[in-house]
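User: My collaborator sent over this chain with a note saying "see what the structure looks like." That's all I know about it. Can you take a look?
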Amino acid sequence: MAKILIIEDDPGIALGVKNDLALEGYDVEVAKDGLSGLERARGGEFDLVLLDIMLPRKDGYAICRELRHAGNRTPILMLTAKALEAEKVLGLELGADDYVTKPFSALELRARVKAMLRRGAPEAPDIFRFSDVEVDFGRGEVRRGGAAVETTRLEFKLLTTFVRRQGKILTRSQLIDLVWRPDSCPTDRVIDNHIMNLRRKIELDPQEPRHLVSVRGLGYRFDA
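Assistant: Without extra context I'll predict from the sequence alone. Here is the result:
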């Protein structure tokens, strides 16, 4: 599920775009002004930023400039009411990846979003290796030392989620959103038990994990 940040101060546009993209299956968050939007975008946890230009507290150009100067490479799609070509060119020169001019149709925006997410998605390897473990995404299989390791569907999905986001802390709430069904509400204990079971299958020493590590007070992180 791709995560999208909308930085837009017009509540009607923000709500309409959020609802439309949520129906497409995206995880969408809205920031209502430039400063709060910049702070959220700096975290680097989003796959795409939809950025309005005319914003209170900090405009879209400044946000784009600061993100790129800080090395943040999250794709940026600018939402602008400005029709002048020079204004659009300036946004691209500052590091935006594309723009769409208001008023835009939901169909056009969805197409732009899908195209940008495809371009920005890193190519996933068919097999991911760490230590003596192989995760074969094509076969839905885990092997250790060349021998198949039996995993449940949920365990494989959990491991895949961690591998795809290696180096990033995932909270229990994020794991529920990414791994469990939307209508399920596993307790912290249930999540921790699944983590423990997975550690037994991929760690040399499950009591002292090197790969699937706990981050006190925050959640879990996968390190290859």
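A starting point for your reply to your collaborator: The chain has a mean pLDDT of 89.
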